[in-house]
Amino acid sequence: MRASSAAWLQALEFSAMNLNLTVLMYHYVRDAGDAAEAGSGIRGMSKQKFCAQVDTIARTYEMVSWKDVREAVLEKKPLPERACLLTFDDGVCDHYWNVFPELARRKLSGLFFALARAEDANLPLPFKLHFLIARLGLENLRAEIWNRLNEAQRAIYRDAEARYRLRGKAETDVVKGIFQRDLADAVNPLLSELIAQHIGSEQELARQLFLNDAQIKEMRAGGMHFGGHSATHPWFDFISPAQRADEIRASREGLTRVEQPPFAFAYPYGGLADDAPQLFQQNHFCAAFTTRASVTHADPFYIGRFDGEEWQ
Predict the structure, then answer these.
(1) Greatest extent of the chain over all pairs of C-alpha atoms, in Å
(2) Residue 98: left if φ>0, alpha if ψ -120 to 50, beta else—which one?
(3) How many other CB atoms sit within 10 Å of the CB of residue 303?
(4) Which is nearest to 25 in space by CA: 82, 72, 85, 80?
(5) pTM
(6) Which one, 40, 129, 196, 238, has least CB within 10 Å?
(7) CB of 194 within 8 A of CB of 141?
(8) Cα–Cα distance, 22 to 293 (Å, whole number)
């Protein structure tokens, strides 16, 4: 399904007025002690709740695949009146063990936004936080990091903390937001130190957490589709244009092994940047998904999604 950039742009401009689609997003789908949770303590949506929700959705919506949505975007093909697409972020092993078999059993297809990473790579920053919060607890982790910050970094922490509290964010979101955004460069190596101290090999944790190439190929052969989600999972509004270009380019290069362009992308954390649509087009992406809830989509590079764990 190759086309020139000009042809893609023409199709995208048309679809901007016509895309009506309910998109659900999921992350961890796991139960304590199963192959995905593996004793990590990282919680997720239970498999029973996920399956029950999918069954309810399938009774009330017309389930579509990424192929259907791509054709709606590029070829002006209409979607069903109550179209629904299931999407899954981060490319974690939950999607192989607990999601893929259930979708295949129901003859459904999901769109999986996996990180572009080598199988021997370490954990991206947010996943270090997941493991450490599960092991140490939020306050203990905060104290461990605080004790390792210098005075300038502590000043940045205090300023960011005040700003996030004014927005009414929950305590977990405040701490994670500071570490993921305002102090990401300083905190990232400290988190690796704490993982080595309190848990073990970061590389082994990453190997167990994320989908491997064989699993991705099996899922793709089983009717699932894959999209890009960056390489390191940064906030797009907190990195430079050059870094955004690198993250999107890495996703494109990773996807060429399993998908035909044009591709789909999901913004990490839902963080947006004005230059992202142009970068997507330059790298053979025709759609990008946010975390903003919406059914009617005015721009194919800002397709909204509902959080599956909060869906009623």
Answers:
(1) 57
(2) alpha
(3) 24
(4) 85
(5) 0.94
(6) 196
(7) yes
(8) 9
**Topology classification of domain 5-119+212-310:** TIM Barrel (3.20.20)
45-78: b (≥16 Cβ within 10 Å) or e? bbbeebbebbeebeeebebbbbebbbbbbbeeee
Residue 3's identity, in one-letter code, is: A
Of 98, 134, 309, 124, the closest CA to residue 229 belongs to 124
Per residue in 23-75, pLDDT (tens digit) is 999 999 999 999 999 999 999 999 999 999 999 999 999 999 999 999 999 98
Q: Where in the chain is the domain with CATH 3.20.20.370?
A: 5-119+212-310
Q: Decide: helix, strand or coil at residue 101.
A: helix
pLDDT digits (tens, 9 = 90+) for 250-273: 999 999 999 999 999 999 999 999
Alpha helices in 119-212 (DSSP H): 125-136, 138-146, 151-166, 171-177, 184-198, 202-209
